[in-house]
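Box 3.1. Reading complex inputs
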Amino acid sequence: MKPSIVQLVKMFLLGCVFFALVTPLLLLLLNSFAHEWRWPQIIPASFSLRAWSVVFSDPHIWSSIGWTVLIGSMVVCLNLLLGLPAAKALAYYEFKGKSLVETFLLLPILIPSLAIGMGLLLTMIRVGLADHWAGVVLIHLLPTLPYTIRILRAGYENIGAGYEEAARNLGASSWKAFWTITVPLLFPSLRAVLALTFVISLSQYVLTALIGGGQVVTLAMIYYPYLAGIDRSVTAALSLLFVLLPILLVCIFELVSHLSRKVVTTNQMRDET
Amino acid sequence: MSRIQEISAKSCVAVLCLLFFLVGCSTDDKEELEEQSENTSESILNQSWEDTLAEAEGSEVHFYMWGGDEGINHYIDDWVAPRLQERYNITLTRHPMDITEILQKLQTEKRAGKEDGSIDVVWINGENFKNAKENDLLWGSFTDYLPNYQQYVNKENSEQQYDFGTTIEGMEAPWGKVQYVFLYDSAKVEEPPASFADLAEWVKKNPGTFTYPEAQDFSGSGFLKHVLYDKIGIEALDGKEYNPSLLQQHSDEIWGYLNELQPHLWREGETYPSTLSDLDHLYSQGEVLFTMGYNEGRAERLIADGTFPETTRSFVMEPGSIGNLHFLSIPFNSTNTAGALVTINELLSPEAQLKKLEPSVWGDNTVLDINKLPDSYQEKLKDIERGESVLSADELQDSFLNEMDPEYTEWIKEYWISEVVQSGNN
């Protein structure tokens, strides 16, 4: 009897989590097709494709999705490029002024990024990065990099320096040690960084508007003005697009990493035999 | 440790170099543009309209405007843009951006001395126009240069000279005109109130069915301005300068009236919708029976897309309905002023203005003087069915009130919380 109760509770909790995650999405889906939906109707009185046709007839929509994915991916890559060494240094090494560096790297979260953005805009205009996607990518590092460093640092601290050192002692190059030891062990943190930075980059409206100057039209630039409006169906349709993008990206990442791990393990087996 | 730092420093430098390189590619043509704009901006208003048309041909115009209304976006993308392309070979690109961000951008560009901006036309009015004008963010006085403005706009009219009390001086061209109306569900309300006194009676008899957006909201302060007109009187406010003694004299009446309403409002007046779209949502769900707002024709499309009940109608109350204009202007650092002028002129053409008036398109009233239009357009204008929810042109014209001095709005916003929300709920 006892395990079945535990199982029941588990099932119930799982059900709750599932319900909490899926119902809002279902509501959005229903709303995006609703024509008239007034309280106390449980489902909409009539349906229409209007909201979706509005969304996809916007001449900016496809290019904006493209830009969003492109900018988001570049932000993720830059985050890893800059975050991995910084996090490793903070996790493994002691040096003078470490706490100062730590605070400095966290500052962008503590100071409203808009305040920094306003100041940076002036510089970006002078340097020629304003109104350009490269400027938008750089400014998106502001709200993302501090989180990346935090997450990766915790990841590095969990692994400890030992494994990589052992690999190096056995003659692996630093690149091979990184690729075959650190990356697989750090995988959960990398996955978290990917999802988080992409979602943060995706939802930047003010910073994108400020630095991109309306020339760089991401999905947020189209979506946010509708949020303030009364048209719930169009807002719901755009919200769904907004949700789908990171989910798709994470799926692609999982697929790619799954395949690459397979390749790595088969290669290793071949090496051994 | 030092190696790691070296690597990270190297990668930083590499990334920055890459970015600069990518950006560097596009700076050459920018310099060319700059030269062009310097040549044009000084002489353009002295050359003939034909020369301007020739100069604008084949150019690209960047129109920055608020993007939260599907009907308006549609009108620009699918009617105006193809027309400009066809008639003048101008490519019009709409950029969705809020006016606050647009002004922020222009302000920073001004400080940075950037003369080759990316914006050619902006949609603007009121407070934002005042800010832009005071900070020299606008290009210049251009309206008299536009043929359609000369021909069809009644320049003598006071509404063409002042935008919320700021003198226009040709720095922006009128684009549309809206009036403040109340909307109600005729299936549930037989006879809407005819005056503010009636409204007070109505809410007492039907508690919880009426509310208005808070004073900080644009439409909320619009409602309160009507109360001011009602309590102080039209003669003292319409077209007159700010007079604080009037407010002192009448403040008891004004706050007294609002406090009288408060306990009978939606949720006993303990809270107010923070924006008009919140109130619209309450109305669309049948929680309240009234909503309101600028643009006398806005209910039509909301009915068509199922947001508002089909039985939605509009009304105005004594002493009248405040109306204002919205405008188009050119930023100080536009690189295609010729294209911007042609675009604005085209948006002021009778065809474009009539199209804009159609309820399924936008439902925004024309700024042209009807008497100056050719007969055929006068006919067409009369034939446009604005929809059942829109009041007749005569009724709207009879109740028309001008915007009052913006100082009054500031006063309302400043004291509404303490005089109404806090005092009433204590």
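In summary: Residues 27 and 33 of chain B are 10 Å apart (CA to CA).
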